[in-house]
């Protein structure tokens, strides 16, 4: 890669599902000479897009796994990660953004900001990733990049500024105008490979001048020098504008907006120029690690190959020949044959094979330096582990991992498939932190948890294909929770005498709802009514109580427990006695605190032709959906609703049948909310039946 780090860019391509991310990446690979032929996402005959290398991705026409590649554009090198748009695979976006220096936020020129765009934007903010927006699909009917730019401001609260203007829209989309240099770009040749630079067409010159004025006005709000020139009515030169856009984009104060149509091969080469021009190189991004030898003090990492190695494993893939570990090198240098240390478990490894990934192809390299993204072969580790050369004992901060919202009971159809079944589950849970595997001790069933129906469906299909194991699947189980709605007092004594020393502990206090934390323990004991050495056991006893509520047997959340009195016995009191007393106190107070069942509520967005709008709204209402609003544009309606997850099973089939297969929907977790009393009664009755049958 680039020896000069100022010539290197690490970027991700993220967006709402079906905005054209993979199509855009395919064009980037073609124009940079990495592939010689463009293959479309849904081109079954050609095997699907380069970055969708998994057979399931090619069949479904969606990206399931993030895929890494690298390209050269002029003298610059770019590491690119193409990420999924579907919310069920959000962890792929999360881990990519965790290690990248910049991103391209792709938006559909017709739909604009959609539900998953908001999620991706939240993820970019979480890791302070500067981004350029690319308004795609300007060849489609109803495309309007100016409205999309406005949406970025109003819906995402981004300081979005058009730095390009389209030349024609819909079937008349011919190219783009660079508003910084005031040049028009047209894209000739069968695949738009020949970029022709012309004067701006006369019919849009005035519009482009007005748009450029808006751009300079936005920069003047951020840059004092430009503000002075603007107020004095003087021209602002191109270099000053470029420097200001770059500075403010890297600072996260500006989002430059480019436009084009990846599918029609328009606007991609200028986007590559803008990636180099405006997104940061590794020397311009601050990264920290925690020093494990010094009370986890933050260490500023520098992309310097002479300093001690710090490298983060951010993604794992178990292939035919062993584990492939994707790593970002933050500091130092790693070479083939080097000894590296896993700071999470202290294990030493030898770097046997170092590769640079191009989708599912591996290209061997001898060494990699700070700022680079590479993969190690045959290193046994977990996602999120930090590697060093032994000179530092440091760990990178972990990434955010959302909790699963749906579970299924699964087992192999035939006993002889059990070994491969276990292998598959171990592999997938190691690769994907949002895919959880557990065992129900009561029923002996294997339970898998994930982010949605599609998420688990893909893994079940992969077990069948990659491990040759047919899987029996039980009914989906929603991840319910329980909580309390009012304050309740408790005063509980645990007393047991069985000859010799007995058990004695008394705890008194109160329990109340707590919005901020799932569980909070407050020690209000004044004096020595309960000795200090037993208070940790009391805390553990209350935590035991939150593991399984009495309504439907699900975990209890959002509770605050305080103790303010109690009693102990010189001989009979012990940690165990007080832990049991706390459990009893929890049960006593919980029943008095008006407990309720909470259910996961999903944010659902349905895009449908307008003639089916009534059908869709009616279908969502039947599923206890709360309609948040709907917008119509060019014969298409977008309906937003909040619907309980328990009501969304089988929705895709219902939606297809009620809209002649013309509608599509996305769904993501929004919040937990109390279930209606009638539903709670049904759930409680089911739980009582299970308990009576010895299954609860």
The strand count comes to: 38
CATH architecture of the largest domain: 3-Layer(aba) Sandwich
- Please state how the strands of the largest beta sheet are arranged side by side: 18-17-23-14-15-22-19-20
Structural class, please? alpha+beta
Main beta sheet, described?
8 strands, antiparallel
Number of domains: 5
CATH topology of the largest domain: Rossmann fold
Number of helices: 16
Oligomer: single chain
**How confident is the prediction overall: mean pLDDT?**
85
Roughly what fraction of the amino acids lie in strands? 25-35%
- Specify the helix fraction band: 25-40%
**Cα Rg:** 29 Å
Cα distance spanning the termini: 57 Å
CATH class annotation of the largest domain: Alpha Beta
- Mass-distribution shape: globular
Keywords:
alpha+beta; Rossmann fold; Elongation Factor Tu (Ef-tu), domain 3; Alpha-Beta Plaits; 5 domains; eight-stranded antiparallel β-sheet; seven-stranded mixed β-sheet; 38 strands; 28% helix
């Amino acid at each position: 890669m680039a020896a000069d780090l100022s010539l290197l860019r690490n970027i991700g391509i993220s967006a709402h599902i079906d905005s054209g991310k993979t199509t855009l990446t395919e064009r980037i690979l073609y124009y940079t000479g990495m592939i010689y032929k463009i293959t479309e996402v849904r081109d079954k005959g050609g095997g699907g897009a380069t970055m969708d290398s998994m057979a399931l991705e090619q069949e479904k026409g969606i990206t399931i796994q993030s895929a890494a590649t690298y390209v050269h554009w002029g003298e610059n090198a770019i590491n690119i990660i193409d990420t999924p748009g579907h919310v069920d695979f959000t962890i792929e976006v999360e881990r990519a953004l965790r290690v990248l220096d910049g991103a391209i936020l792709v938006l559909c020129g017709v739909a604009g900001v959609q539900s998953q765009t908001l999620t991706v934007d939240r993820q970019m903010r979480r890791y302070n990733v500067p981004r350029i927006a690319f308004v795609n699909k300007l060849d489609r009917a109803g495309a309007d990049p100016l409205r999309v730019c406005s949406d970025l401001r109003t819906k995402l609260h981004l300081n979005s500024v058009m730095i390009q203007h389209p030349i024609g829209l819909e079937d008349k989309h011919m190219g783009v105008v660079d508003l910084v240099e005031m040049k028009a770009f047209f894209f000739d040749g069968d695949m738009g490979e020949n970029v022709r630079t012309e004067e701006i067409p006369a019919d849009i010159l005035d519009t482009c001048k007005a748009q450029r004025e808006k751009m300079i006005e936005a920069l003047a709000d951020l840059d004092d020098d430009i503000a002075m020139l603007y107020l004095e009515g003087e021209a602002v030169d191109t270099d000053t504008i470029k420097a200001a856009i770059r500075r403010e984009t890297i600072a996260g104060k500006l989002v430059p907006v480019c436009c084009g149509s990846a599918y029609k091969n328009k606007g991609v080469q200028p986007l590559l120029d803008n990636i180099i021009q405006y997104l940061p190189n590794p020397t311009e991004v601050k990264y920290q690690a925690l020093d494990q030898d010094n009370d986890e003090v933050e260490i500023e990492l520098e992309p310097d190959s002479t300093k001690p190695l710090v490298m983060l494993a951010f993604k794992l893939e178990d292939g035919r020949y062993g584990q492939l570990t994707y790593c970002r090198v933050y500091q130092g240098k790693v070479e083939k044959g080097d000894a590296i240390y896993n700071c999470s478990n202290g294990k030493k490894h030898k770097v046997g094979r170092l590769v640079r990934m191009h989708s599912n192809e591996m290209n061997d390299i001898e060494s990699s330096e700070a700022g680079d993204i590479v993969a190690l072969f045959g290193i046994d580790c977990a996602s999120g582990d930090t590697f060093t050369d032994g000179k530092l004992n440091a760990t990178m901060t972990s990434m955010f991992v959302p909790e699963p919202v749906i579970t299924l009971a699964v087992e192999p159809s035939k006993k002889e498939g059990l070994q491969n079944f276990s292998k598959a589950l171990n592999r997938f849970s190691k690769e994907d932190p949002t895919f959880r595997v557990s065992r129900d001790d009561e029923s002996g069933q294997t339970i898998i948890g994930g982010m949605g129906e599609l998420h688990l469906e893909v893994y079940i299909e992969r077990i069948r294909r990659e491990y040759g194991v047919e899987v029996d699947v039980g009914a989906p189980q929603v991840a319910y929770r329980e909580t309390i709605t009012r304050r309740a007092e408790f005063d509980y004594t645990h007393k047991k005498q069985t000859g010799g020393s007995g058990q004695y502990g008394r705890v008194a206090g109160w329990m109340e709802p707590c919005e901020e934390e799932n569980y909070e323990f407050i020690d209000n004991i004044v004096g020595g009514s309960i000795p200090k050495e037993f208070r940790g056991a009391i805390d553990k006893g209350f935590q035991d109580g939150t593991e399984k509520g009495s309504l439907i047997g699900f975990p209890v959340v959002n509770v605050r427990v305080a103790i303010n009195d109690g009693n102990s016995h010189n001989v009979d009191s012990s940690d165990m006695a007080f832990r049991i007393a706390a459990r009893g106190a929890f049960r006593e107070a919980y029943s008095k605190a008006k407990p309720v069942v909470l259910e996961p509520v999903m944010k659902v967005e349905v895009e449908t032709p307008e003639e089916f709008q009534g059908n869709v709204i009616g279908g969502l209402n039947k599923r206890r959906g709360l309609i948040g609003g709907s917008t119509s544009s060019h014969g298409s309606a977008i309906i937003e609703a909040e619907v309980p997850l328990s009501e969304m099973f089988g929705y895709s089939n219902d939606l297809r049948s009620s809209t002649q297969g013309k509608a599509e929907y996305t769904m993501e977790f929004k919040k937990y909310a109390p279930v209606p009393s009638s539903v709670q009664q049904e759930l409680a009755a089911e739980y009582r039946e299970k308990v009576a049958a010895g299954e609860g």
